Amino acid sequence: PLILGIETSCDETGVALVRGHTLLADEVASSVDQHARFGGVVPEVASRAHLEALTPTTERALDRAGVTLADVDAVAVTAGPGLAGALLVGVSAAKAHALALNRPLYGVNHLVGHVAVDQLAHGPLASPTVALLVSGGHTSLLLVNDLATDVRLLGETVDDAAGEAYDKVARLLGLPYPGGPPIDRAAAEGDATAVHFPRGKLGDGSYDFSFSGLKTAVARWVESAQGDGEDLHVPDIAAAFQESVVDVLTAKAVAACRDHGVGHLVISGGVAANSRLRDLAAERCAEAGIELRVPPARLCTDNGAMIATLGAEVVAAGCSPSPLDLATDTSLPVEQVLAG
Ligand code: ATP
Ligand code: MG
Ligand code: FE
Fold first, then answer.
1. 76 φ, ψ to 5°?
2. What does pTM read for this prediction?
3. Mutate to test the pocket of ligand 1, among 112, 166, 275, 300 (most ligand atoms within 8 A of CB)
4. Which of 46, 187, 233, 247 would suit a FRET pair with 103, their CA atoms being 20 to 30 Å apart?
5. How far, in Å, CA of 87 to CA of 32, rounded?
6. Sheet containing 74-80: which strands, arranged edge to edge?
7. Which of 109, 112, 135 to mutate to test the pocket of ligand 1 (most atoms within 8 A of CB)?
């Protein structure tokens, strides 16, 4: 079946068409430039941008795929988690398509979509798979028995998300928003051993994460260097910060695989685009005999393909469609793949 996927949970308007594990089109319009000067996403600005972008983005995706709306067999949309007004734009449009086309509607979980999208690059996920989800708003370890029906939460951040830590530390270092890509680039020129920042919750035996202490440690370091009139060596601080983040992420992901006897790990979400995370995860998984999968960088950040792929998965699993009065859920739990 041909699945139309719509994503509007944050600041990317994504529309994609997927058949099985084949991606026919994936168009993304981002309002990130409109938020940059605020150092974070402004919800009202994001909602308006989705309203303006959704129709042209849908038309581009249909053109690219060489199909029309009449060819669509099912409509999948992000029902949550995300920003209330932003989610509402996508869900309203998806309902309108489903009603007008007389096709089933599936309100799906954005976070599970981040994991599902890897199937476009690497085929069906092994079962079970441990998933490390690292994004702007979430940092979670999942045990995925079945993408459509059985996703379990093993642990998550108790404070900041990994991407949020990148964004906040970038700001401290005078780097632009969003902070992940510029820190990734700066770190490549720096010495990660120049400073040793704390490793949040490493060695506590849990699968939970904490990044706010690290952020505070970087802030103190920057303040004291500036107070002493020292030159801030941004590449070194970026590299040392990044090493602390990826050390904890990879150690806990490998521990979750080992403890659950699982030989497969997938890393996804915007921070999975990080080059040092990808390298260290590959190294530690190779040592531990774990098969690692990470989607290509362009599929790691928000897009419609992740939602269309998860839509294809729930259709294939025979899940019941969502009602046409489907509600958005700004804090939809990750274990709830389909919104009710
Ligand atoms: P969520 O999925 O939790 O709702 P989101 O959709 O806003 O949040 P994503 O789009 O998945 O998050 O990811 C955005 C985050 O990824 C930002 O915090 C950004 O800084 C981070 N990011 C993007 N590229 C990189 C990179 N190369 N290194 C580290 N972080 C990165
Ligand atoms: Mg974004
Ligand atoms: Fe996301």
1. -115, 140
2. 0.96
3. 166
4. 46
5. 16
6. 22-30, 12-19, 2-7, 74-80, 105-109
7. 135
Ligand 1 binding residues, C-beta < 6 A: 9-10, 82, 110, 135-138, 163, 166-167, 178-181, 184, 269-271, 273-274, 301-302
Strands 74-80 and 105-109: parallel
Nearest-ligand number for the alpha carbon of 83:
1
Average pLDDT over residues 86-107: 98
Give pLDDT, residue 340.
79
| Mean of pLDDT values over 276-290 | 98
Cβ atoms 4, 72 nearer than 8 A? yes
- Is the ipTM beyond the 0.95 threshold? yes
Q: Is 175 annotated as a binding residue?
A: no
| Whether the Cβ atoms of residue 46 and residue 296 lie closer than 8 Å to each other | no
Q: Provide mean pLDDT across the span 26-39.
A: 92
Cβ atoms of residues 64 and 24 within 8 Å: yes
Query: d(Cα 78, Cα 314) in Å, to the nearest integer?
Result: 13
**Residue 51: strand, helix, or coil:** helix
Question: Near ion ligand 2, which residues have CB within 5 Å?
Answer: 10-12
User: Which of 238, 244, 224 lies closest to 175 in space, CA to CA?
Assistant: 238
CA dihedral 67, 322, 91, 120 (to 10 degrees): -50
* Ligand 3 center to 193 CA (angstroms): 31
Can the peptide bond before residue 81 be classed as cis, meaning omega within 30 degrees of 0? yes
Instruction: Report whether pLDDT(226) > 90.
Output: no
274 has binding-site annotation? yes
Looking at the CA of residue 178, tell me the nearest atom of ligand 1: 20
Pocket test for ligand 1, best of 301, 310, 331, 332 (most atoms within 8 A of CB): 301
